[in-house]
Amino acid sequence: MPLSPLRRISRRFLRRTKNWGTVALLTLGGNQVERKAILKGCKRPVLLIYGFGATRRTFSILEKRLFNDGYTVFSINLGGIFDTFNTHAIENLAARIDQKIEHLYEKYKFRGKLSVICHSKGGLIGHYYVKRLGGDRRVKVLVTLGTPHNGTPWALLFSITPVALVLKSVRQMSPLSNFIQRLKKGPFPKKVKVYSIFSKDDRICMYPGAVLEEAPNVKNVEIQGTTHSEFLIKKNVYYVIKHALDDQMPQSLEDKTRERLQEEMKKPGRLRLIQNLR
User: Fold this and answer.
1) What pLDDT, on the 0 to 100 scale, is given for residue 265?
2) Alpha carbon distances (Å) from 163 to 48, 49, 119, 157, 169
3) What's 177's DSSP letter?
């Protein structure tokens, strides 16, 4: 193999390792966060929902960027193992989100509808909240990052271990789970714009686990060369998130994603796989 490809592979490995380390350190910071946003009467509220095993600080970099761009950003402690890491059942967490949002709207008199940004399992919580708990009355945009809307094989693998006996949400994220199959039934409410941002380089939410069935208000956006943790820190991902929040996603991104999905469906066996996931 020529030297230049080796260097590219080495640089990519070191970059991804560094990015993973950054997110891991942020996660270990726990759920104690400094409140910077002024919630009272805010017009652009943005809720962040973190993923399995993560904490509120996992979103630190993304939260800072949103805050600097004028968004009112906040998160909710989801508890879990050690009352810190997100491990509780998805429907219970969605109910907690629902109750907290209603409390915040009443207490702080939000003047704008909510935008929700979710990572990984957090997207399933947001998905359930919007589709099953009437969250569409509060939410205008739902953005999911590397979310296993169709389940993830890792959960299927762990479902045969003692971990799944203790943690219901692991079983729920299996592609074969009743939870995933029920959640996919029925469309998203038409007044909520949904963007599923995914990458084929994501080895946690493996392709096509994050691909939603498209509708006028539901779009898939592929970002190439992004790992599961890098959704939280890469600038090019943030730019796509901002387009989604403003409902100004470049048509070229949607078209390119659609074209690549169509090409994938032409591959032997791929069409059946995608249809089964849907």
Assistant:
1) 77
2) 26, 23, 21, 10, 10
3) -
